[in-house]
Design brief:
By secondary structure, this protein is α+β, with helices and mostly antiparallel strands. 47% of the residues lie in helices and 12% in strands. It starts with a helix and ends with a helix.
Length: 259
């Protein structure tokens, strides 16, 4: 669990876009378990820097695209070598190590296609756990319908791999004297819109955050439906963490999306 969090913080840190605690070391304990050592930041609730967080998060999501654009431009220039960057240029969806959203591991094997990655390695993975724990017939039947409709939600959308925090709810953002801070990530390279799924579920983000974010990354056609699709993962993940209290929300979204 901590290895994935350390790799996530390290990846975000290297983009120099949004502040995170600097990861130091994961220490395995003799009697089992581990301790994750990271930079101490004097943090408080996010109040003053919501707009800056929106700007910085958009910069994080655009970082890989800007690197891809730069790489393409350099490759088209005769005699121009690729520029050196501490952050690799990523052309697929996934992450180089497993990460955990909560305590459940995520499948981060690389995929060339975002719809395939999200359908199989996020939604199907969660629904397999629901099936194993609850054998929920209605969820199983709705998923059989929904997975056929998912590609339609991306018909006119270009999805460029973006480095994501991965679990950006209000409890994982804060601020210090220098500006906004995000922490406790479950990173991977995915669709930037994915990040805003859980952000809209439990509050903690005001209109200045969203305005600043969308000034840099405007909403694409079909955003609202895809936002529901991305919230579905988190409701399923909460169902698998905390039990049937999240069943109703999960099924409601699936019903809405298969209409």
């Amino acid at each position: 669990m901590f290895d994935g969090e350390m790799a996530s913080l390290d990846a975000i840190l290297k983009t120099e876009t949004v502040k995170v605690p600097k990861p130091m070391k994961v220490i395995e304990l003799d009697k089992g378990g581990a301790v994750f050592v990271m930079e101490h930041l004097d943090m408080r609730g996010l109040t003053k820097y919501s707009k800056q967080l929106g700007e910085h998060l958009a910069d994080l999501h655009l970082h890989n695209k800007r690197q891809l654009d730069k790489q393409d431009k350099e490759q088209q220039t005769v005699g121009k070598g690729a520029g050196q960057s501490e952050v690799p240029v990523i052309e697929n969806f996934g992450f180089h190590v497993p990460t955990c959203c909560g305590y459940l591991p995520q499948e981060n094997d690389w995929q060339e296609d975002w719809v395939t990655f999200y359908s199989r390695q996020r939604l199907q993975h969660q629904l397999n756990m629901v099936e194993s724990s609850y054998g929920d017939r209605e969820a199983r039947e709705l998923w059989a319908q929904l997975q056929l409709k998912i590609p339609q939600l991306f018909a006119d959308v270009e999805v460029v791999p973006a480095l994501l925090h991965g679990d950006l709810w209000g409890g994982n953002v804060s601020e210090c004297t220098e500006g906004p801070v995000i922490f406790d990530p479950a990173s991977f390279y995915g669709h930037s819109e994915y990040e805003l799924g859980i952000a809209g579920m439990f509050g903690g983000f005001n209109s200045s955050f969203y305005s600043a974010y969308h000034d840099k990354i405007p909403k694409a056609p079909g955003f609202a439906k895809r936002n529901q699709l991305y919230q579905l993962f988190h409701y399923l993940n909460h169902w698998n963490h905390f039990g049937g209290g999240y069943r109703g929300s999960s099924l409601r979204i699936m019903k809405d999306l298969v209409k």
